[in-house]
Specification:
The chain has about 350 residues and is mainly α. It is about 70% helix and about 0% strand. One of its GO terms (cellular component) is plasma membrane.
């Protein structure tokens, strides 16, 4: 295949995966709507699963907290309506298909360049790759933590990101700039997108924590005992899952932002640190997440306070990822990542 054909294939794969993500999102909406008329057993709101408390008490001992998180975080299969189980399986299957098409779009985007290069030379490609990592992380953790409750959030989020990516950030394939032609680019960006995927999943969970906590404070359990929020894991399970994803992503972000980033900057521009806006905001993001983990480890900050800090960290991450390129693009040596003033719409035949 020619490079032009690979570009067309990448565009078609993006359109295809967006369509399948949309179908998966609809399937998960039907899944949770089917459970609205079936009240959740009381023990579900306490442990995340019917009968889980007895399981944890009998087998976990002193490490019961870990066992509670590792147990399925939704009602047991025999307690869920058959319609929920069916559409849940359909939604996950569609998400797997969408992820495969998403991966194809990333790979063929790199093959479309002449010479062949890594597929993250601009904001469109960064966003395309980063959203794929979010889906991949969700699928890898789905069985271990029974993440069916996260399914509509992930599929909806990735769908919106792809729409924005295509409509506002799309750029034709071009060769890498000289400053990007370095093996440190591969190491730096791979670490950054993995950390971003982990922070995003943790941020989603922190947001759900705050929403459910407010819903419970307002007596939502008595008004809607079978809805989506009622079927979410208990608050301490959401809090602990968010903590684990952030604890996983933070050292990877440290490696990306404070180690490989400066090394790459030295090879590209002859200095390790230059107070570039993107470098500064990458450090701000690191400080916020360091504060989040430090507060949890030393001061025992959990629940609402920890969730708020996590969302502040996600906001700084997204601003560093997108906002810097729009507001400081002309004054940043990372301006290659900013879209052109007149963005083009993705065409499948171009």
């Amino acid at each position: 295949m020619t490079h032009e054909q690979f570009e067309v294939l990448s565009n078609q794969a993006v359109a295809g995966c967006a369509a399948v993500y949309f179908l998966a999102f609809l399937a998960h909406l039907v899944q949770w709507a089917a459970g609205r008329k079936v009240a959740v057993a009381e023990s579900v709101s306490e442990t995340g699963r019917v009968g889980a408390r007895e399981h944890v008490t009998a087998g976990a001992g002193a490490s019961g907290d870990v066992a509670t998180l590792d147990a399925p975080a939704t009602p047991a299969a025999d307690e869920e309506p058959e319609r929920m189980l069916l559409f849940g399986r359909i939604g996950v299957s569609l998400t797997v298909v969408a992820a495969a098409l998403h991966f194809l779009s990333v790979v063929t985007r790199g093959l479309a360049a002449d010479p062949v290069r890594v597929p993250w030379g601009n904001m469109y490609e960064f966003t395309l790759t980063g959203s794929f990592v979010v889906t991949l992380g969700y699928l890898l953790l789905y069985r271990r933590y029974s993440l069916s409750w996260l399914s509509p959030v992930v599929t909806g989020f990735v769908l919106v990101v792809l729409m924005v990516d295509v409509l506002t950030l799309y750029e034709p394939v071009v060769p890498l700039q000289d400053s990007l032609q370095s093996p440190w680019l591969v190491i730096h960006v791979v670490a950054a997108v993995i950390a971003t995927g982990g922070f995003t999943l943790g941020g989603m969970t922190s947001l759900l924590y705050l929403v459910k906590a407010r819903w419970e404070d307002r007596g939502g359990v008595s008004r809607n005992p079978g809805g989506y929020l009622a079927r979410l894991p208990e608050l301490k399970v959401l809090d602990r899952f968010a903590y684990r994803t952030h604890a996983f992503a933070f050292p990877i972000w440290t490696f990306a932002a404070l180690i490989t980033g400066p090394i790459w900057a030295h090879y590209a521009w002859g200095r390790y640190w230059g107070w570039d806006p993107k470098e500064v905001w990458a450090f701000i993001t690191w400080v916020v997440y360091a504060a989040y983990l430090h507060a949890r480890a030393t001061s025992g900050w959990k629940g609402r306070s920890a969730a708020i800090i996590a969302l502040v960290g996600l906001a700084t991450l997204l601003f560093n990822f997108v906002g810097i390129n729009f507001f400081f693009g002309s004054g940043s040596q990372h301006s290659y990542a900013a879209p052109e003033p007149t963005s083009v719409v993705l065409h499948l035949d171009a």
